[in-house]
Amino acid sequence: MSHYRIVETVFGYAVVAFEPDPFRLLEIRQPQADLKAASQPFDERLWQIDREHPRASAVARDLISYFNGKAIDIPWQWMDLSRFTSSQQAVYRAVAGIPYGETASYGQVARMAGLPRAARFVGTTMANNPYPVLI
């Protein structure tokens, strides 16, 4: 059964969704002002709320730090990228390599990922990114 944890940040309630054993991050949800709206998609799927898992707690602390303006390390070891194509993985890794506080266009990211003519692909990949904030 999948689990989730609500994280209260300065911007609202974010969510860390995960499989507990072995631990792997499934998705991160951006903060929302309404607690019920943040948890509803997971409650509808009958996922279990879990406030105690130590690794989920570590990710929660990182999210709080991030929304307080601090750079965080990406927990690659807990992110299952195998569900993505090698091109999608290259895009995620390229975006993750953009320094904190800087930006890049989709065309720039495509070149960084070794896909120089795939700016639209980068846009689609990032629109479906399950790990916003982390990537």
Task: Give the structure's gist in a few sentences.
The chain is an alpha+beta fold and 135 residues long. The protein has helices spanning 35-44, 54-67, 86-96, 106-112, 119-127; strands spanning 3-9, 12-20, 23-32, 48-49. It contains five helices and four strands.
Describe the structure.
By secondary structure, this protein is α+β, with helices and mostly antiparallel strands. Helices cover about 40% and strands about 20% of the residues. It is built from five helices and four strands; from the N terminus they run βββαβαααα. It has a four-stranded mixed β-sheet. Helix 4 crosses helix 5. It is globular. It starts with a strand and ends in an 8-residue tail after the last helix.
How do the strands and helices of this protein lay out in sequence?
Layout: E1 3-9, E2 12-20, E3 23-32, H1 35-44, E4 48-49, H2 54-67, H3 86-96, H4 106-112, H5 119-127
Parallel strand pairs: 1-4
Antiparallel strand pairs: 1-2, 2-3
Helix pairs in contact: 4-5
